[in-house]
Design a protein that fits this description.
The chain has 189 residues and is α+β, with helices and mostly antiparallel strands. The protein is built from 9 helices and 5 strands. It has 3 domains: 60 residues, Nucleic acid-binding proteins (OB fold (Dihydrolipoamide Acetyltransferase, E2P), Beta Barrel); 70 residues, DNA polymerase, domain 1 (Orthogonal Bundle), CATH 1.10.150; 51 residues, no CATH class.
Length: 189
């Protein structure tokens, strides 16, 4: 699973970019705000979601932070919301702004998103109200800990529980093996 890319922006398109990392060009779909932050030829890092489309193709969706990826994944988890709609909705503002809009039931915040009607927006707000409160107090997850999150999720832990466990690992624990052991202890509690 590709969940993080760091490299050079080769080409920018209206809805995507090609990021060259390790000599390989990855096409990554991104929202307009993320694309506006990136310049062709400049170094960039993206947190990604890999989507298997009808078991034929793979598409990467990228956002600028781990918190934004978390919002994207939660929105995409709502029934009837695909990755392009989730990207459009999660790109409307900063993760904290989106969290507040969902918690307050502010449908107007999500207005004017192409392909997402008011009923789908209502469904997103209804299903995610209460689920985003945990994002507020989490310590920022670093890129090096993304592998820990993936491993915990592969072991069956929900994303929010995995994030909570990883964010509580003491800073003095540095080795990947010890960090994983500690994350498992914390996630089981």
């Amino acid at each position: 699973m590709i969940s993080y890319l760091k490299g050079r922006v080769f080409v920018k398109n209206p809805d995507s970019l090609i990021l060259v990392a390790g000599g390989v060009g990855y096409k990554v779909f991104a929202g307009p705000k993320t694309l506006a932050l990136l310049q062709e030829g400049a170094e960039a890092e993206l947190f990604c979601y890999l989507h298997l489309k009808r078991e034929e193709t793979m598409e990467l969706y990228g956002v600028s932070s781990l918190a934004a990826l978390s919002i994207f994944e939660l929105i995409k988890g709502v029934s009837g919301i695909g990755p392009k709609a989730a990207l459009a909705l999660s790109s409307l503002g900063e993760p904290e702004e989106i969290r507040k809009a969902i918690e307050m039931g502010d449908e107007s915040f999500f207005g004017n998103v192409h392909g997402v009607g008011s009923k789908k927006i209502q469904k997103v707000i209804l299903e995610l109200t209460g689920k985003l409160k945990t994002l507020k107090g989490d310590r920022k997850i670093e890129a090096k800990d993304k592998d820990l999150l993936d491993a915990l999720q592969a072991l069956g832990f929900p994303l929010q529980r995995a994030k909570s466990a990883v964010s509580r690992i003491p800073k003095e624990i540095q080795s990947p093996e010890h960090r994983m052991k500690e994350a498992l202890k914390l996630a089981r509690r």
